[in-house]
Each structure stands twice: as C-alpha cells, then as structure tokens.
Amino acid sequence: MENSPSTDNLIDRRIAQRLRALRAERNWSLDDLATRSNVSRATLSRLENAAVSPTASVLGKLCVAYGLPMSRLMHMVEEDFAPLVPRADQPLWTDASAGFRRRSVSPPAQALSGEALECELGAGAHITYDASPRPGLEHHLILLEGELQITVDGQQHALQAGDCLRYQLFGPSAFATPAHSAARYILFIV
Fold first, then answer.
1. Three-class secondary structure of residue 170 per DSSP
2. How high is the pLDDT of residue 45?
3. DSSP secondary structure letter of residue 109
4. Cα diameter, the chain
5. For site-directed labelling of 96, which of 50, 56, 103, 167 has its Cα 20 to 30 A away?
6. What is the mean pLDDT of residues 61-71?
7. Do 5-76 and 81-189 have matching folds?
8. Which residue intervals of the chain are DSSP H helices?
9. Are 148 and 185 within 8 A, CB to CB?
C-alpha cells in the first residue's frame, strides 16, 4: 500500500515546515541559506511555502548546509519511533522528476543508530549529491534488482543484483541506472 496523494502533500507540507524551522533555528536569512546550499533563494522560498515538492538533489544540498543526513531530516517530518513498522505504515517519498522512490523501512530514531531504506531508481535515471551531510557516514547498499552505478568520492562502482557496496561517505556521490534497467536496493545507514 502506498501513500495517497493527500499523504504526499502532507509530507511536502511537513518538509516545508521543518526546513523553515531549521533555517530559523540558525537565524539564517533565505540569502544566507542560498549561499550555504547553492540553491536559489526563489527555490528555497517555494520549498518553505510548500509551493513545490523538493527533489532529492535539492534536499541533499540543504542537508549538507544543515549538517544532517537526509534520513534525519525525513525523520523530523515523519511519525515517531515504533518498534514494528508495517509496510503500509512505512513513509514513502517520491521524486518523480528524478525517477526516485524512497521508502523508510526502518526510520531513524533517537535510541537507534541505524536505519534502513528501500529505494527505487527508474531506468536511465541519475541523482547527484554534492557532499556528505556528515563526513564518514556509513552506508551498506544491497542491490536487489537491476543495475546501478554508484560513484563515491570519485570512485565508480558497477553493481549487479545481489552485490553489496559498503562505504563511508566523505564527499560527493552519484547514483545512475542504464537506459535499459531500473534498480531496486536496500540502503542501511549507520
């Protein structure tokens, strides 16, 4: 069961509220954040007013500026910690423009250090993140289906179904699928 359009709009509104709050907590103007994130002031304003849905790339840039992993940002807008997370209750976030879907299978929590995400990237898709939100963030990616090329700190890795890529992220990263194959993977972040 996937989130309905009204649930997606609710998540976008919660993201907007959280982004506004993060900026206010730091006492930054929109111009300050635009400079720190390399996202235009106009885009930031539209995001904070929930006038547009954020893309994975823009959220990645904002997370770098705020120094937190995207999963922590998403946790701030999702439901509280529960030991059992039925699939129907796992928050799903979609970036249709990038062909990316992210299901928070095991959301982050204060008492737990890891989390698990189920991700899908459409055929011929490409997502780039400029920097790690927290240097040294540990990732364990298991490709379940398809083909996926991941570039981590300048090193490329071609994954086939069943492969596992383990890395600590210190710099930029990119995820790409060939034109003939989508990818579905599980990502554990510690």
1. coil
2. 93
3. B
4. 46
5. 167
6. 88
7. no
8. 5-25, 30-37, 41-48, 56-66, 70-77
9. yes
pLDDT digits (tens, 9 = 90+) for 119-145: 999 999 999 998 888 888 899 999 999
Instruction: Compute CA 162 distance to the chain's CA centroid, rounded to the nearest angstrom.
Output: 22
Nearest to 189 by CA among 122, 133, 123: 133
Is 106 exposed, middle or buried (CB count within 10 Å of its CB: 0-12, 13-18, 19+)? middle
pTM of the model: 0.64
Tokens 């490409």 belong to which residue? 126
The encoded tokens of residue 128 equal: 């780039």
Q: Helices 5-25 and 56-66: crossing angle, nearest 10°?
A: 30
Distance CA 164, CA 92 (A): 23
Q: What would the two tokens of residue 176 be? A: 């790409």
Task: Report the C-alpha gap between 76 and 171 in whole angstroms.
Answer: 24
81-189: CATH class: mainly beta
Question: Which whole-number Å values give the CA distances from 85 to 4, 90, 111, 122, 184, in the listed order?
Answer: 18, 6, 15, 25, 20
CATH number for domain 5-76, candidates 3.20.20.70, 3.40.190.290, 1.10.260.40, 3.30.300.30: 1.10.260.40
Q: What is the CA radius of gyration of the chain?
A: 16
